[in-house]
């Protein structure tokens, strides 16, 4: 009986914490204003959708995997364990300027389209979807769950038209970081076959303690063109990958970042980059998820709250 009582207490405590998280989630992300999936349409309680983005960028959906985290389309990425500052300059998470804040838009502004933004908390993927007569463009953004050093942007295009489809890309890199003194890697020093990549490395400006080592961070990312042209009757997927490593968990900082990026592209070429990510999330949900039947809104609230706990 004592064991049963302890288990019951733990279950109640978990439910109470879940409702507390939901209250916070609801107030910050305005769940009540989102077009939540309708169970009558056989939609999942783990997908939150809207046809507009919040005007306040602080209310954007966030993605994370325990090592990297960012708000979608923001100019900042944060790395586990990497802090800057001390004493009168309080220690805080060091800001890494984002190389994955990519926004897509159609070049032809006269085309009638429908737009949808969604956060799938079961798969850990944020999607921006634009659909028109004869084409679909989807931008998928995720911090890879299995390969935690990766921040991935996939752009998938289905062009069934008889003419090329042009998709414009814009980046939000933001200002120079005040927390890390990054140095760009010259093109002449990039590894062979890396002409389509860029890289930088640096160390935190101020350690938390006077005798602490300066933590280093290396970033390798895919160059992003301003324009994608998809030929008629063609389906195509574009990958823009950022690999970030720190000296806290790697040896050979910059080399490790290049290695992580190479592994990602090899997996993408084999068609398994997204699959490996969603499979890892599925395993996590199987271990930690809570299934609720008969109350769709409650199920959404619990799943949304758990996502922000697990990511």
TrEMBL record:
GO BP annotations, alphabetical order: carbohydrate metabolic process
Gene Ontology molecular functions: hydrolase activity, hydrolyzing O-glycosyl compounds
Protein name according to UniProt: Acid trehalase 1
Protein source organism: Paramuricea clavata (Red gorgonian)
């Amino acid at each position: 009986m004592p064991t049963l009582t302890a288990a019951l207490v733990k279950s109640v405590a978990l439910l109470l914490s879940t409702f507390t998280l939901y209250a916070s989630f609801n107030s910050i992300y305005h769940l009540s204003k989102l077009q939540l999936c309708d169970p009558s349409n056989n939609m999942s309680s783990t997908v939150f959708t809207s046809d507009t983005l919040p005007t306040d960028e602080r209310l954007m959906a966030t993605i994370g995997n325990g090592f990297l985290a960012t708000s979608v389309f923001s100019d900042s990425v944060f790395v586990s364990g990497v802090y800057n500052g001390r004493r009168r300059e309080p220690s805080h998470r060091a800001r890494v300027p984002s190389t994955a804040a990519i926004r897509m838009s159609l070049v032809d502004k006269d085309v009638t389209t429908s737009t949808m933004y969604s956060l799938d908390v079961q798969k850990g993927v944020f999607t921006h979807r634009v659909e028109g007569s004869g084409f679909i463009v989807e931008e998928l953004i995720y911090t890879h769950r299995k390969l935690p050093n990766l921040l991935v942007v996939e752009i998938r295009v289905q062009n069934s038209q008889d003419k090329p489809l042009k998709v414009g890309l814009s980046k939000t890199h933001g200002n120079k970081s005040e927390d890390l003194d990054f140095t760009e890697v010259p093109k002449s020093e990039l590894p062979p076959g890396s002409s389509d990549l860029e890289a930088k490395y640096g160390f935190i400006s101020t350690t938390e303690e006077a005798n602490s080592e300066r933590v280093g961070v290396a970033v390798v990312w895919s160059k992003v063109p301003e324009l994608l042209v998809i030929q008629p009757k063609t389906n195509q997927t574009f990958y823009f990958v950022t690999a970030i490593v720190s000296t806290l968990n790697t040896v050979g900082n910059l080399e490790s970042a290049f290695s992580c990026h190479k592994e990602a592209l090899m997996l993408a070429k084999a068609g398994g980059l997204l699959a490996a990510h969603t499979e890892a999330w599925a395993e996590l949900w199987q271990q930690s998820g809570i299934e609720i039947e008969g109350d769709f809104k409650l199920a959404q609230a619990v799943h949304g709250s758990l996502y922000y706990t697990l990511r």
